[in-house]
Amino acid sequence: MLHLAQVFHHQQLSASDQFETLLLVANTVLALSFCLLLATILVCYPLAALFSFELQLASHVTLIFSATLLKIAYICRCIAQYELHQEVR
Fold it and tell me: How many helices (H) and strands (E) does the chain have?
């Protein structure tokens, strides 16, 4: 089991603990990037008339960034699940 004190005190973690940490971080980033992706899609397309050109431009750039981050987080999640002998979904 992962101990937060070990993470913050830079103690040596076992491989299992490292992959549990990776899974936790990947799941968190996956959720946050998904929310960011949905928000940018709303600003870029259905609600575009409500926002300035500059904000729409920033949202289009953020859309690319959040989609990329989503994919990277998913790959990290799959790696962590595989190494923890969990079902990879």
Answer: 3, 0
